[in-house]
Design a protein that fits this description.
Distance between the termini of chain A: 20 Å
Shape of chain A: globular
CATH superfamily of chain A: Transcriptional regulator MraZ domain
Largest interface: A-B, 21 and 27 residues
Strand order of the largest sheet of chain A: 1-7-8-4-3-5
Radius of gyration of chain A: 16 Å
Oligomer: homodimer
Strand content of chain A: 25-35%
Mean pLDDT of chain A: 90
CATH topology of chain A: Chemotaxis protein chec
DNA sequence: CTTAGTTACCCACATTTACCCACTATGGCG
DNA sequence: CGCCATAGTGGGTAAATGTGGGTAACTAAG
């Protein structure tokens, strides 16, 4: 399970440290340190999938008829820009420029656990995202939480 | 079951002692000392979930379609700010700065039992919360209590 | 084959966190 | 009233984590 958010800095080479708790989660929960990082479908951030979750995602895509134009977009934007990687001995991964640009990553990078995946945001966009504009209580009621 | 409220002091490192009765409740009622602490959805306080209750909460979230924008807000604010932890040998946990800030915790911290979770308030906000501005009797009537 | 650019790996340092020990305060009980 | 057990608090230290930079291996283009 990936929970919590952690800020790490990306160096000029484009390397960022994956927070240790998330690396632990990969090892303990999935028994596989491989991960896939790619553009998020909905937002201006990246998303890290443990290999197993990525496979499930691909399976879900396979169920969509290939005539569906949205599917083809997702294929191109998400699948085609994905990288498979593992953290190096220092716990870091190298993010290719294309991914960095998509998420507008500059220096400080936010890793945000999202139960079975991890979101990767530029600090500024992240701050904006979690700003305290109240969540509608009726909506919460409706969702049963 | 968590009931009652207890004040403990947070030190400069951000450590606070979890009241012993609540630690006992974790051990006895849940047989699992792990807990998750995160921002409360509604109020300016933190909320401590026994691991089991947290899992239930996540299950409830999974039932909501991920296209729902409120869900994604909750994911980011609640799931992404959560920490999984256990009390150390002295019975304390370390609260990260982001959580301390959200609940405006300074020195004295109030732990308030709330049946299956525990609320964590800054003393001042807590005082304000339990002030005697009357509860509307009609509302009570309506709620059947 | 050579060379420039990129990537992977290694070492060293700074910072943070987890863990341990010791002391104080409080409440129950004889 | 004093003793003991438990709860809570403060601080020191070793280990873990994160960061910066250097060098060797690799890749791709000329």
């Amino acid at each position: 399970m990936f929970i919590g958010n952690y800020a790490n800095t990306m160096d000029e080479k484009g390397r960022v440290n994956i927070p240790a708790v998330f690396r632990d989660a990969l090892r303990k929960d999935y028994d596989d340190e491989r991960m896939v990082i790619t553009r998020d479908i909905r937002d201006a951030c990246l998303r890290m999938y443990p290999m197993h979750e990525w496979q499930s995602f691909l399976e879900a895509l396979k169920k969509i008829p290939s005539s569906n134009p949205t599917l083809r977009r997702i294929q191109r934007r998400v699948v085609s820009s994905a990288i498979e990687c593992m953290a190096d001995k220092q716990g870091r991964v190298l993010l290719p420029i294309s991914l960095r640009e998509h998420a507008q990553l500059s220096k400080t990078v936010q890793f945000a656990g999202s139960s079975n995946t991890v979101e990767i945001w530029d600090e500024k966009l992240w701050q904006h995202e979690i700003e305290d504009d109240a969540i509608d209580p009726d909506m919460l009621e409706q969702l049963g939480i």
